[in-house]
Here is the input.
Amino acid sequence: MTTPATDATNFGDATSSAEVVEPQDDKRWLGLAVIAIAQLMVVLDASIVNIALPSAQADLGIDDANRQWIVTAYTLAFGGLLLLGGRIADYIGRKKAFIIGLIGFAGASALGGFATTQEMLFAARGLQGAFAALLAPAALALITVTFVEPRERAKAFGVYGAIAGGGAALGLILGGILTEYASWHWCLLVNVPVAIIALILAIPLIKESRAEGDRRYDIPGAITSTLGLVFLVYGFTKAVDSWTAPETLFFIGLGILLLVAFVLIELKTSHPLLPMRVVLDRNRGGSFLTSLLVGVALFGMFLFLTIYMQGTLGYSALKSGFAFLPFSAGIIFAAGLASKLLPRFGPRPVMAVGLAMSTVGMAWLTTLGMDSSYVTHILPSELLLSIGMGLTFVPLSSTALTGVEPHDAGVASAMVNTTQQVGGSLGTALLNTIAASAAAAFVVANGVGSIAEAQVVGYTDAFKVGAVIMAVAFVVTVTMINAKPAPEDATATPAHIG
Here is the structure.
């Protein structure tokens, strides 16, 4: 799904005038169209796969404990490699990285589309995430260095943001159509022709640019952070059997140790993947922590609400797609409203209201039963969550850049998407484990005849934890964010969660 996420700031440290594409170039707007096509592909992929997930799970015989890897494999690779992907794009050239990302994303999509086993699908989703981590920052950087005049840059990012918002809604409908009238495989295969079109157009229309100066990579940081997240998520997955089992504790402990090692590396290395000064500022740190917590709750919500609508209420894939449309509409509406409120009130009040609404919306989902009404249960929660998220992410994106040095602006922008993806990975694994454990316990207590009811109990238990996490995000915002209103906050522009 989409949220307004990042400011029109380049990933990496690539803002010198020597690397800016000439503003007189008549191909700039055609180049923007190519970038928008690639952005549409990534956004479509996220929402299409959400709708196709129950069908893919049933077709490949994926059990409830492992179904979260359809989402998590992607978000882990994307979030874990996004900062490194931005650096690679800066150093090897943004156009080259963009093209490699397109080719890789198309190949991974084809692999997933032809998947015949769960392992093949999970691997394909991880590859998609890895290439998206190269494609997304390259696309943002190309816009930033191509459109240097503020008004034109605002228009360019307006197009980019509109694609993000509209693309998610299109993906919901397209995912429903493809799943219902073709198969879930086409929800991945559809990326291939889109990528080919973008590739053919990118070669003549997009100009190359790259960062100058120090081009060393923080490989130890990339390895420890990514493996740390993988082991932590895997530990959460194993916890469906027992939270105290030696295997569960081993992987969770190993993940934590590797993440601690990542922080220590970043504090000592001369070319950190994530400079600690970026996250230790009170406002920026509060924004990143809020983004992480929201990612934990939000990604889990999409997983369980999709499965609930199709598995419990018997909605078709297409009907589920339409049922999610109010969420996209609410995000778009609230993002525009937040942009107007932000200069007047500052980030904290706007974010606080948004997170309070989101907490209530998540709590509303805990009332779902075997035959709950869409109008009285699902729709109100969707509207509360979507409007709350729109009010949250615009000021969050702006606050994430408060007082940041120009050299660190790209990293600060990237961290918003990174924390969302990492939060989504951890949250999907954690909440899926909670849901599966609760369902299993309910069956043990009530017999095998209660399986359908047990699944709903699992979903609502996950929503309860999601509501608590949203409430914690509210507390973080109120206690940590203290940035003052500033007219330039109004320039925050929408981007996507891949």
About this structure: The chain is about 75% helix and 0% strand. The CA atoms of residues 56 and 184 lie 6 Å apart. The two ends are 8 Å apart (CA to CA). The longest helix spans residues 409-446.
